[in-house]
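User: Could you walk me through two proteins back to back? I'd like the raw sequence and the structure tokens for each, with a short line separating them so I can tell where one ends and the next begins.

Assistant: Of course. Protein one, sequence then structure:
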Amino acid sequence: MKIAVGSDMKTHLTDVVVDELKKMGHEVEIFGALVKAPALWSQVAVEVAEKVSTGNYDQAVLFCWTGTGISLAANKVKGIRAALCHDAETSRGARKWNDANILAMSLRAVSEQVAKEILEAWFSTPPSTDREDVECIEYLKEAEERLMASLSHTDILKSEKK
């Protein structure tokens, strides 16, 4: 699997996760402060999320201090379902029930061992094929289309008023 990894800070944890992903057999490319610092979490998140959204990468792993900002920013990109995970069970659920395509982790709260457990759960759990779970994801896709179209129309109206 082709995985993008981005962060606003390069830390021991980011290095461990990149190495672990490679050991798992994934093709990994790094972004943000993992390449060159400084890097804004908002920009790293959107850059990486766009790469997943367009299909250039299968999935991604993102980091910031809390994990919250980077997951919020990634979720602004159409087609992205970023999940902030602090443990393996949350990671497993995010993949199974939410078909999450970007894993976000906190640089502050996640230990090296827990990060490895999160990765194992994430990459070993396929999305659910249960009817209700599939319907939920389909509903989100439809809502995203509708809301994005509405937003675009609103933006056009605002720019015409200027």
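----
Protein two, same layout:
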Amino acid sequence: MEAEENTPGNSFWIIKIYPFGVLLLSIGLNFSFGIEPLQASIPSTELLGLLSFSAILLVINHSWIMTATELTRNRFKIFASPEEQVSNDISESGITEKGRSEIERHLNTHRNTTENIVYYIFLALIFILVSPSQLAAWVWILAFPLARLGYTYSYFMGNDSVRGIFMSLTLLSVYGISGYLAFGFLFKQLV
């Protein structure tokens, strides 16, 4: 069976336009939350608590992914290194297709989560140091880890539709923080 020729269809344009739509939504939400000129300050106890709670949720998410990955390795006798395979007398050819597919699902979840957390942490740390509006801080800082938990669950369950929604919420949160910082800086320059 031949592969279909890649032709730009509806999904092509959705993929290209989608990030800009999420960005515009985050900008609109930021204006509804109220963007104030950036003012560097020591974070409030409330913001530190919020960021700490978010970090705890992300650690829970990471632990969940790590445990699920190791349980999958154990169930399908897939080892993390060639040395472990040799010491357990398991050959690469003994791994089933289902096992390969399941471990790949878990590793993709782990990679995607790690890639996204880096941007979030960097932006969230700057965000709490500039006195954001309380509503924006609560929404953007808390939305990310909650969306990551939903993303992990839907990825493990193989539910692409729900996974896409949670990925969009993750992206919306990161765009929301970065947009708030950009407009807050701009407003600071205009004042």
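Helices lie at 10-33, 45-76, 82-87, 97-128, 134-157, 160-190.

Let me know if you want the two compared in more detail.
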